[in-house]
Amino acid sequence: MSSELGNERSARLMTAALDICLLAFILEKERYGYELISGLEAEGIRFVKEGSIYPLLRKMEKDGLIAARLAPSQDGPARKYYKMLPKGKEKLLAWSESFLEFTGKVSGILERRLNIEDARSESAGETDRNLA
Q: Which of 13, 25, 69, 118 is deepest in the core (most CB within 10 A)?
């Protein structure tokens, strides 16, 4: 059960940071949707589906953060590639600074108040006692 709750929480946290991650990948080079999902998965983020990224990519395109172009594909239908626009780079930098500042504060709170290994040991001990 704990693992399921962790996955659900991770998925919600990822959803909140998905735009930053997508822009970071697009900053490196022009990419198409499946390539973005694969990149996230390669980084260990496995909660993202096509239905999550395409509406976000359309919104970022509408907001002038990225531009899209269709290019033929040897593997099937044309692919839509996304590239970074100057406004997108500015937003990415601003959002990243804000995100890193926030996550740093959360990490500090957790580090000062919770020793994860001790908490896990205590939790496992309580489970063992409850089973006895």
A: 25
Q: Which residues pair with 82 in a beta bridge?
A: 31, 68
Query: With contact defined as beta carbons under 8 Å apart, do 71 and 82 qualify?
Result: no
Domain count, the chain: 1
Give pLDDT tens digits for 68-89: 999 998 888 899 999 999 999 9
**Domain of 27, in residue numbers:** 2-131
CATH code of 48's domain:
1.10.10.10
Distance, CA of 94 to chain centre: 17
**What is each CA distance from 3 to 7, 10, 84, 121, in whole angstroms?**
6, 10, 36, 16
